[in-house]
Amino acid sequence: MIDFPQFEYQHDTLYAESVSLETIAKKFGTPCYVYSRNALTSIYYEFERAFSSDDYLICYAVKANSNLAILNLLARLGSGFDIVSGGELQRVIKAGGDPHKTVFSGVGKLADEMRMALAADILCFNVESIGELHLLNQIAAAMNKIAPVSLRVNPDVDAKTHPYISTGLKENKFGIPIEEAEQIYLSTDIFSHIKFVGLDCHIGSQLTELDPFVQAGEKLVSLLHRLRSHNLPIEHLDLGGGLGIRYTNEALPSIHDYIEALRKTLGPIKLKLLIEPGRSLIGNAGLLLTRTAYIKHTPDRHFAIVDAAMNDLMRPSLYKAYHQILPVSKREGTVCNYQIVGPVCETGDFLGHDRKLVLEADDLLAVMSAGAYGMSMSSNYNTRPRAAEVMVDGDTVHLIRARETIDQLTASEVILQT
Question: Are 310 and 350 in contact (CB under 8 A)?
Answer without folding.
Answer: yes
